[in-house]
Amino acid sequence: MHNDGTISIIVNGEHKRVRAGQTIAELAAEIGLVPEKVAVERNLEVVPRSTLHETKLHDGDELEIVHFVGGGDHGVAVDEDRWEVAGKRFRSRLIVGTGKYKDMAQNAAAVEASGAEIVTVAVRRVNVTDPKAPMLTDYIDPKKITYLPNTAGCFTAEDAIRTLRLAREAGGWELVKLEVLGEARTLYPDMVETLRATEILAKEGFKPMVYCVDDPIAAKRLEDVGAVAIMPLGAPIGSGLGIQNKVTIRLIVEGAKVPVLVDAGVGTASDAAAAMELGCDGVLMNTAIAEAKDPILMAHAMRAAVEAGRLAYRAGRMGKRRYADPSSPLAGLI
Ligand SMILES: CC(=O)[C@@H](O)[C@H](O)COP(=O)(O)O
């Protein structure tokens, strides 16, 4: 015991001074736990819960005190997790497309089920400005959902820039998704044209999120010329093949100072989870939801997968081993 009437103990690995004669229940309450809902080990021995109110602490005790399952709040701070692009914050890390759906109503229902806060719209194909024709904005409220105009179908920098200038004139959009395709067969991005367009658009005040190859050096160049997000393909657009090169996606994530979102090629929920487990900030997809047998159910699945992948990334996966390792230690078996 110390001169001031306290004793030294270790609680959950941390040194602590407490009043001599204090009970374990009092200590639990002091550290914010409900004594009736804790499990306690003292000096590696389990302390029965029924005795916590009378068991006094001794100098040098080492305690492990935790809320037992069902007793405490094991919730994870999912809701506090946000990502940010060009100064805008979002909770959902899933961006969905607006092509290939049966109709706009089905598209809207899928967006709702996905929990997405951003939809991307091919401004050359989808009507968002002519009130005389069916408008997507009648189904997906632009006050609640951020519209991200994209340049789908553009094969030159000039084409893409012209499309986005028109979009800005019509709807005021500055946060845009740039894609400049190299050829119709593979729909691979033309990186020379993409870099050129990114630089011009950024100088004109646009905030381009840029579809690109899964190449860490190209990603750096894009960032240098003003891309506000890097969007490497997981696999060719509409292929549903899943992430073909996890190594390069991881390298892009490690090197980027702006958000990285896998764009294109996701086929099913595990592909989306894999992208998030690599540390991507989000995933953009269209075909996997729109062409599922039940697009609304798939939108739910994608939402869950993106959230699960993100949680797993934050949690930090265990290391891989070459050989088995027993789940219950074998040492000390009788
Ligand atoms: C780059 C591009 O066009 C993508 O936004 C595409 O629309 C999505 O690709 P998936 O249809 O493969 O999800």
TrEMBL record:
Q: Which residues of the sequence carry a binding annotation for 1-deoxy-D-xylulose 5-phosphate? A: 238, 264-265, 286-287
Identify the CDD domains for this entry: ThiG, Ubl_ThiS
Would the keyword Methyltransferase be found if you checked this record's keyword annotation? no
According to its UniProt record, where is this protein located? Cytoplasm
Q: According to its UniProt record, where is this protein mainly located?
A: cytoplasm
Q: What is its EC number?
A: 2.8.1.10
Q: Which reaction does it catalyse?
A: [ThiS sulfur-carrier protein]-C-terminal-Gly-aminoethanethioate + 2-iminoacetate + 1-deoxy-D-xylulose 5-phosphate = [ThiS sulfur-carrier protein]-C-terminal Gly-Gly + 2-[(2R,5Z)-2-carboxy-4-methylthiazol-5(2H)-ylidene]ethyl phosphate + 2 H2O + H(+)
InterPro entries the UniProt entry points to: Aldolase_TIM (IPR013785), Beta-grasp_dom_sf (IPR012675), Mopterin_synth/thiamin_S_b (IPR016155), Thi_S (IPR010035), Thiazole_synthase_ThiG (IPR033983), ThiG (IPR008867), ThiS/MoaD-like (IPR003749)
Active-site positions, per UniProt?
177
Q: Which stretches make up the Thiazole synthase ThiG domain?
A: 85-329
Superkingdom to which the source organism belongs? Bacteria
Q: Membrane as a keyword? A: no
Pathway stated in the Swiss-Prot or TrEMBL entry:
Cofactor biosynthesis; thiamine diphosphate biosynthesis
Known function: Catalyzes the rearrangement of 1-deoxy-D-xylulose 5-phosphate (DXP) to produce the thiazole phosphate moiety of thiamine. Sulfur is provided by the thiocarboxylate moiety of the carrier protein ThiS. In vitro, sulfur can be provided by H(2)S.
Oligomer status and interactors: Homotetramer. Forms heterodimers with either ThiH or ThiS.
| Listed name of the protein | Thiazole synthase
